[in-house]
Amino acid sequence: MGKMSKMFLGVLFLMVFVAGSVFAAASDTVTYEKDIKKILSAQCLSCHGSDAPVMTEFKKDEEKFKKAMKGPRADTYKDLMVMVNGSDTGALMRRLDDGKNTANGKPGNMYDYLGGTNEEKVKNLEAIKMWIGGWTLKRQKDITADELKAIKALEK
What is the model's pLDDT at position 5? Predict the structure, then answer.
């Protein structure tokens, strides 16, 4: 085999390897559409579904909605992002946190709804954390620009 043929095969091998790595990384990327939507559908939408109020309506009369077992709407990417990095930044993280990020070690008030077993809760929380990227319990007024940039939460 000539020098050019070996070089060509080497370059071809490298291109296939890089393409395969990029494809594998892309398929491992957690997205709302591919991963998070099904977790929310199974665990959250009975209270945070299409019949729940959007955040602005919820904030007007929280007690009324809580008594009716309705939290802010989270059945669309847009509505969910309000609680990730929107007007109520960090709310999703504060509610779902397992307590490992709090001073008192207490989990968020929605952590128990992440699954029927501890294993399911841990698995679902890990997927949501991977999706969000920059997990923070801070509110919008307290979060830094760098912390906000660390939040990935890809739709697709």
Answer: 59
pLDDT tens per residue, range 30-40: 999 999 999 99
CA atoms within 13 A on the CB side of 127: 19
Whole-structure pTM value? 0.82
Q: How far apart are CA 51 and CA 73, in angstroms?
A: 8
Q: Which of the two residues, 8 and 113, has the higher pLDDT score?
A: 113
Residue 52 lies in a domain: yes
Inside any domain, residue 9: no
The count of domains in the chain is 1
Asked whether residue 12 is assigned to any structural domain, the reply reads no
CA-to-CA distance for 22 and 9, rounded, in angstroms? 20
pLDDT at 17 over 70: no
122 domain-assigned: yes
Q: Which domain holds residue 56?
A: 30-150
